[in-house]
Design goal:
This is Type II toxin-antitoxin system RelB/DinJ family antitoxin. The protein is an all-alpha fold and 96 residues long. The protein is built from four helices and no strands. The protein has a single domain (15-95), classed as Arc Repressor Mutant (Orthogonal Bundle), CATH 1.10.1220. The protein has helices spanning 15-27, 32-46, 60-70, 80-95.
Length: 96
């Protein structure tokens, strides 16, 4: 039997959120690592987020952006160079 290659994924969240997520996972009989692996597997299976984002507790700007995308508005395809330029412009705008 061949062993599949693995990699480590590191991300940062608040200590409180980690503790609360561990508690939820543990009540389900999972470690937090296992729960995250389940999330990733479902994301791959669904070819998208394994849940439907909602407007509940979402900042107004984010909710409006999601509505626009759902209505086919505000979508633009970027080449890698165009996208990098776009991101650079956003950084410059935030610095002003």
């Amino acid at each position: 039997m061949s062993e599949k290659a693995t990699t480590r994924v590191t991300f940062t969240i608040s200590t409180e959120k980690k503790t609360r997520a561990e508690s939820v996972a543990n009540r389900m009989g999972l470690s937090l690592s296992s729960a995250i692996q389940v999330f990733v597997e479902q994301m791959i299976k669904d070819d998208g987020m394994p849940f439907r984002p909602t407007n509940k507790n979402m900042p107004f700007e984010t909710a409006e952006a999601l509505k626009a995308i759902q209505n086919g508005q505000g979508l633009k395809k970027y080449s890698v160079d165009e996208f990098e330029q776009y991101l650079s412009q956003l950084d410059e705008d935030q610095d002003d």
